[in-house]
Amino acid sequence: DVKVTQSSRYLVKRTGEKVFLECVQDMDHENMFWYRQDPGLGLRLIYFSYDVKMKEKGDIPEGYSVSREKKERFSLILESASTNQTSMYLCASSLRQVVLYGYTFGSGTRLTVV
Amino acid sequence: DQQVKQNSPSLSVQEGRISILNCDYTNSMFDYFLWYKKYPAEGPTFLISISSIKDKNEDGRFTVFLNKSAKHLSLHIVPSQPGDSAVYFCAASFTGNQFYFGTGTSLTVIP
Questions:
Q1: Which of B25, B53, B98, B106 to mutate to test the interface with A (most CBs of A within 10 A)?
Q2: pLDDT tens-digit profile of A97-114?
Q3: Pick from A33, A43, A98: CB nearest B96
Q4: For residue A3, which phi and psi values (nearest 5 degrees)?
Q5: How confident is the model over B37-66, as pLDDT tens digits?
Q6: A27 with A93: CB under 8 angstroms?
Q7: Which residue of B has its CA nearest to A104?
Q8: B45 in contact with A, Cβ within 8 Å
Q9: CB atoms A107 and B104 under 8 Å
Q10: Distance between CA atoms of residues A22 and A20, nearest Å
Q11: Which among A68, B45, B74, B110 is placed 20 to 30 Å from A34, CA to CA?
């Protein structure tokens, strides 16, 4: 079974801090994604990556950056955390062609910015 | 603007009856559709999918129906079981790689 592991389940950070969310997958998947889940808004794509050192903006990239130095690891960076970035963050991975097989998601990181 | 909509935030069904979860989309270019199930404190898990060349796909108790002319997708669960209680997300894509998700429907199956 593919595993997607997110480093923290719960995180509390202060406004203005630089925050790193880490995600590791163990099945050699080419694609990796970062979503945030908010009540009434569903899952919204922040950034994704199709290969090492490649990144593409999703629908809501403002205030975030990403890093993919190794195939198995995809990091989400909040450059200067703000309270409106309090959310559930979900990492996902997939084979190059997702079609009909979907993503494998991690368990999520609930981030609270105070 | 939300391209994939799930207009019912919640649904309650008696055990053994049919659960019908609905999803509407606005982009006629979408040609792959997935349903995910999410339990609290867990990531979503893939449930069932359909491509636009089909109008129905079955997997055990789960059936997905696609009506392209109405831009409407539905998930039928028969019979519903208490373990099916979860949040269900539909997702759509026109590239096969990046999916757009709905807002989710919370299903409660009453024993």
A1: B98
A2: 656 667 889 999 999 999
A3: A98
A4: -120, 135
A5: 999 888 899 999 998 999 999 999 999 999
A6: yes
A7: B45
A8: yes
A9: no
A10: 6
A11: B74
